Amino acid sequence: GATLYVTLEPCCHTGRTGPCTEAVLASGIRRVVVGCQDENPRVSGRGIRRLRRAGIDVEVGCLGEEARAQNRGFFRFIRDGRPHVVLKAAASLDGFIAPAGARKPGSIHWLTSPASRAAAHELRARHDAILAGAGTVLADDPRLTARLQGGRRQPLRVVLDGALRIPPGARLFRETAAGPPLVIAARPAATGAASAAFAKRRRALEAAGAEVAVLTANRAGRIPVAAVVSLLGKRQVQSLLLEGGAQVHAAFIHARLVDEVVLFLAPQLLGGGVPISAGPGLPIDAPLRLGPLRAIHMAGDIIVSASVLGDSPRGRG
């Protein structure tokens, strides 16, 4: 006799779990309020019709926009077979994420407050995967985990490392409870000594606990990010948090594979350093346009977030 409120239409097929519609019918629930219809062709209204045929009172569209926003990763995955990509960065007010020059690995200069850093860990925990570049791992030696009280599901940790430069002793390999990190490399064009050296580095990383995937490099010799998100989609990753360095951010922006941005801005001016993004850039008349902007204050910092307006063309990599 109860009413069930759901953000997404109950499914009527067997996927990772059994059909939700059958569980609803078996429960004795008499009314279901659905936020939005499922875009999965295997469902797409069939779940609603199944419940109505069984005599369940079904209402559709309650808080529909909010429900679609909450399920945006799932919808992106269903439409394009790739994860919803969120670019996250902590930066000074003039747009720098780190000071210039070489740093001792693991020596981190915090720009934002402890409260903002806790919010960033919450953000990590809400994503299926988190991605950084080899440069970030070499400079910061991060763990790439969601460190929250009470313990939470850990995202898949992904590192783009074309030449397999990161050391087997990096901290991310010691976080065994978070699962093996996925290191994505570019297939070496050369043979002989260079190929043998690459194979040796791969074996060392796998011995340290990494899973290594090798993709074909693009014309510039880099890992094509379109192939990266395709690979992650095949692994059922529906949401990806970018915490890469400037080069990684630029690659995703240039490929038009950013769906959302979250910037943690500290009230500081560095006047130089490592920018949020550093790459070829987009034409001035064809940027990724964002909106609506959302801003909240947190312990002196400002957290600015926005979605990319409209569906961008498929990534070029």
In short:
With 317 residues, the protein is an alpha/beta fold. The chain is 27% helix and 23% strand.
* Cα-to-Cα separation, first versus last residue: 52 Å
The main sheet comes to: 9 strands, mixed
The fraction of residues in strands falls at 15-25%
Count of alpha and pi helical runs: 9
Residue share in helix: 25-40%
| Overall geometry | globular
Overall number of strands:
14
Mean pLDDT: 91
Give me the side-by-side strand order of the main sheet. Answer: 9-8-7-6-10-4-11-14-13
| Poorly predicted spans | 312-317
Specify the structural class.
Answer: alpha/beta
Write down the secondary-structure element order: EHEHEHHEEHEHEEHEHEHEEEE
Backbone CA Rg: 22 Å
Description:
The chain has 317 residues and is of the alpha/beta class. The protein has 9 helices and 14 strands. The strands form 3 sheets. Strands 9-8-7-6-10-4-11-14-13 form a 9-stranded mixed sheet. Helix 2 links the parallel strand 2 and strand 3. Helix 1 runs parallel beside helix 2. It is globular. The C terminus is likely disordered.
What are its keywords?
single chain; 317 residues; alpha/beta; three-stranded parallel beta sheet; 9 helices
List the helices and strands and how they pair.
Elements: E1 3-8, H1 20-27, E2 31-36, H2 46-53, E3 57-60, H3 64-70, H4 72-80, E4 84-92, E5 96-98, H5 114-125, E6 129-133, H6 134-140, E7 156-160, E8 182-186, H7 193-207, E9 211-215, H8 225-234, E10 239-242, H9 246-254, E11 260-266, E12 274-275, E13 294-298, E14 301-307
Helix pairs in contact: 1-2
